Amino acid sequence: MTESQDLAAVAAAASAAAGPFADASPADRARALVAVADALDAAADELVSIAMRETGLGEPRLRGELTRTSVQLRLFAETVLDGTYLDVRIDDADPDFVLGARAEVRRMLVPVGPVVNFAASNFPFAFSVAGGDTASALAAGCPVVLKAHPGHPELSRATAATVRDALAAAGLPDGVFQLVEGVEAGVAILQDPRIRAASFTGSLRAGRHLADLAAARPSPIPFYGELGSVNPVFVTRAAIDERAAELAAGYVASVSGSAGQLCTKPGVVFVPAGAEAADRLVARVAEAAAGLAEHRLLNPGITRGFAARRGEVLGAPGVVAVAEGALRVDADEQGWATPTILRVSLDDFRASREQLAEEAFGPLSILVEVPDGADLADLVDEFLEGELTATVHLGADEASGAEHDASRALVRALADRVGRVLVGGWPTGVAVTPAMQHGGPWPATTDAGGSTSVGTAAISRFLRPVAYQSVPDALLPPALQDANPWNVPQRRSPAGQSRGWGATAAAAIA
């Protein structure tokens, strides 16, 4: 627990570090990110051991997640050195500008300042202390105050010490990275006027509360919250005819992996009803789920939430178990679960929508049986709000053959409601790549602008634009100077260009 009297010192240290950190060269910032990645890799045995004890997650999963954490730090180091993310634009002074004389204007993105990051429970490395939000904020040049998750306190402290030591050894100023603990401390630091942005991964209830606090400040700040998703899947009859066993195995693996405690777990799967192929898929799903070993849930709070949600879904009219699963609670109130997979008709799903269409954080998913002739794009309009992902499984000819129009309409409808559309595969497993989008419309996230918390575009959350008009070169940031000492891409609009605006477009449309 961080004492309240210490929080002012934490915010002051972050604020004091903001200027020097923003001024650090791309090479220095990249070097620091790589140093953190190296330090995490070197401490892997100790950190994974702590994580196994505190979270119940298995060693292979945790080692893979720690590798992902160091990889994304290195990816952001490359992003910083590339410099494209700064979006440097230079308009030369132009006395012959078509609308009247134009002054010189130079624009770039700059760090927003200190950021508070609320760590997640279900990814104790990749979305926690040194995870994607921390990596992207540090890459942007923003000091980070990390609010630790109570589900893995010892791991949080050990990881934070590793990060702090690596940053200090790389020569970064004190205050660039700090850890606070406790609900009250998290709320208080969020409301400190020196904090300029916040990120969060967790429940809709907690995220909405924090987002409202951020918006209600005397000076509101951006709040990037990832709040959950049911990640709908649409499976066509042709897909089942071609690969029922493969679909069933992939589905069950996606639902049961990490005990279903993933924000991209497929919670609702729309399948064709009343066909031999559909019954075969259901049978294959039951076979794939049978005999799976129980998996520990992350903590007692998640166990209680899953137990309540599972009971609510099982009690809904028309719901039938495909794999009933089980939940065992031990003397320490830790839960151990096997997957619960259910089936329900579209009419019953529609009648109990509020009861069935919300996220169940744990190994539970629902197969919704859709009658022949139903327009899947219409189901998107009826049932989807905002989701992180949506997946479509098609037959081999449905993307280009006679069913092309229906498939295209479905994909277009999904793109209007989700952050990532998949054709084939399963949504669990979010690749750390430049093009990845991990976000979505409300209520999947709080950001209507469509930011991402995974991939190099995540850096944009912690930057803001500043234009410099007629500022002497010696007073400009390095990225805007003519000498360009940071060697970043500069997009220049030379004098005289405005007289030709529209000519290229006119030629293209002629």
From TrEMBL:
**Taxonomically, which superkingdom?**
Bacteria
Region described as Disordered: spans on this chain: 483-503
Recorded GO MF terms = oxidoreductase activity, acting on the aldehyde or oxo group of donors, NAD or NADP as acceptor
Residue span(s) of domain Aldehyde dehydrogenase: 5-379
Sorted keywords for this record are: Oxidoreductase
Pfam families on file: Aldedh
Q: Which PANTHER family match?
A: ALDEHYDE DEHYDROGENASE-RELATED, SUCCINATE-SEMIALDEHYDE DEHYDROGENASE, MITOCHONDRIAL
Protein name as catalogued: Aldehyde dehydrogenase family protein
